[in-house]
Amino acid sequence: MDFEAAWAEVNTRSAHGYMAAGTDKETDQQSLTEMARTLQRISRFLDEVGVVYAANCLHSFEGEVSLGSLTVAVVDYSYGGDAATAARGTLRGVLESRGEGWTGSVIDAPCGQAAVFTGGQSYVLPPAFSPNGEEIEVLTAQFHAMIPVPLEVGDEQRMCLVAFSTPQVTHWEKCYAPLMANVLRSLRFTGNRQEARGGAQTTAAASASRTEG
Fold first, then answer.
1. What are phi and psi of 107, to 5 degrees?
2. How many Å apart are CA 140 and CA 69, to the nearest integer?
3. CA proximity to 162, closest of 181, 138, 178
């Protein structure tokens, strides 16, 4: 998004009452401007790092509001001659960098071997996005899958990264873990770079649509 598109998106959400109003019009305009700038920066960053699909779902689970965010990226990644070895090496490297509270394993998915990680991570929510107008820390439940794109797919080595997070950590096990398992089962790789990116986007979008419903 450029700034104009981000501004239009933020104002649309504000007009529909998705964001809390400020104390006066000037404060509202300042908050909306900051949100639009942040959204523009995030959009540019996602594009630069190879994200092919990104979505949020907001729904009700067991009588509580629940939010989840899903992203899928496909990036160039030289991992050597064996995808399975790459998955195991990725698992060790990520677990060492994340520290305590993170667990992971290599699983056999229909699209190939996947290094899967789960754990918790905290983020600081800026005042402009906070419901009370103050900076707050939010703990999220995180799921990451790193899948070396099989060598037979094309002549370039790539890595598919699937990331999901929710601030409703108590909803992870019963609501989101089964859905993310379905996402992994839905992923397929096709014969060239553009199709691989689009294939990841299409299947993830279908799974996200089922999640949102």
1. -120, 160
2. 10
3. 181
CA separation for the pair 115, 105 (Å, rounded): 6
Cβ 110 vs Cβ 139: under 8 Å: no
Q: Which helix (DSSP H) or strand (DSSP E) does residue 196 occupy?
A: helix 193-212
Cα separation, 63 vs 134, in Å, equals 27
Phi, psi for 197 (deg, rounded to 5): -65, -45
Cβ contact 190:199 at 8 Å: yes
pLDDT digits (tens, 9 = 90+) for 69-117: 999 998 888 887 788 888 999 898 888 888 788 999 999 998 888 999 9
- Compute CA 127 distance to the chain's CA centroid, rounded to the nearest angstrom: 22
Strand order across the 112-125 sheet = 51-61, 64-76, 158-166, 136-148, 112-125, 103-109
Q: Each residue of 133-162: pLDDT tens digit?
A: 889 999 999 999 999 988 777 777 889 999
Helix (H, G, I), strand (E, B) or coil at 199: helix
**Does the CA dihedral 40-44-46-52 come out positive or negative?**
positive
Task: Assess contact for 140 and 68: CB atoms under 8 A.
Answer: no
Q: What residues contact residue 10 under an 8 Å CB cut-off, 6+ apart? A: 32, 35, 36, 39
Burial 54-80 (b: 16+ CB within 10 A, else e): bbebeeebeeeebebebbbbbeebebe
Q: Give the type of residue at 192.
A: N
